[in-house]
Structures are given as structure tokens and as C-alpha cells.
Specification:
Elements (H helix, E strand, L loop, with lengths): L2 E3 L10 H5 L5 E3 L4 E3 L19 E3 L9 H11 L7 H4 L6 H4 L10
Antiparallel strand pairs: 1-4, 2-3
Length: 108
């Protein structure tokens, strides 16, 4: 499998992981970021830079983040495999993410 971005990224989109990704496989959605499962090379560079620990290897996902592996696959089912995230712009969020309650984060 691959690395997956989970619930902690919803409505945060820190983007530190994008800067670390050597293969440009982390795409920006409307409410969160997504790792393209077919483009990720499993290097793990993104995981330690995430300030909210939203990124995990698919086999190591917490129970509450397990659905996000399917969410990432769904995000790219229609989009396919573009030539990298930088060129793609913002991708539409899958229905699962769009339906999540808005997360309000404080400045603390």
C-alpha cells in the first residue's frame, strides 16, 4: 500500500508534507491533502514533518483513520494519475470528506 493522510488534516492543510515529497504525489483538496496511492514511492519523508501527525503508513492507520485509505483511492478514481500535484491544482474532495463536519481550530 502507501502512506495515507487522515482526519487530522481535514480543514488544516498545513502543506509541510508537500514541500518534503520528492515525487510530487501529495495533492491539495478543498478541505484536506491527499497522497496519490499510485504515485507514492513509500519514502516516508512526509510523515515526520506533519505537525498534527495526520500521515501514517496504510498498514499502521489508527482505527478512526482507516477509512481514509479508501478516501485517497476515491479522490483519484476519476482524476486518474496526473503529472504531479503541482500541475493539478486543487482536486475535488470525495463525498466522505465533503460530508465531514467543519473542524474549527484555535490559534493556540
Amino acid at each position: 500500500m502507501t502512506y495515507v493522510i487522515g482526519h487530522a488534516c481535514v480543514d488544516l492543510k498545513d502543506r509541510s508534507c508537500i514541500e518534503e515529497c520528492p515525487v510530487d504525489c501529495i495533492y491539495e483538496g478543498e478541505r484536506m491533502l491527499y497522497i496519490h496511492p499510485d504515485q507514492c514511492v513509500d519514502c516516508g519523508a512526509c510523515e515526520p514533518v506533519c505537525p498534527v501527525e495526520a500521515i501514517a503508513y496504510s498498514d499502521d492507520l489508527a482505527v478512526e483513520d482507516a477509512p481514509f485509505a479508501g478516501v485517497a483511492r476515491h479522490a483519484f478514481s476519476e482524476l486518474g494519475s496526473p503529472d504531479g500535484a503541482e500541475r493539478a491544482g486543487v482536486v475535488p474532495d470525495p463525498p466522505f470528506v465533503a460530508a465531514l463536519p467543519v473542524t474549527v481550530r484555535g490559534d493556540s
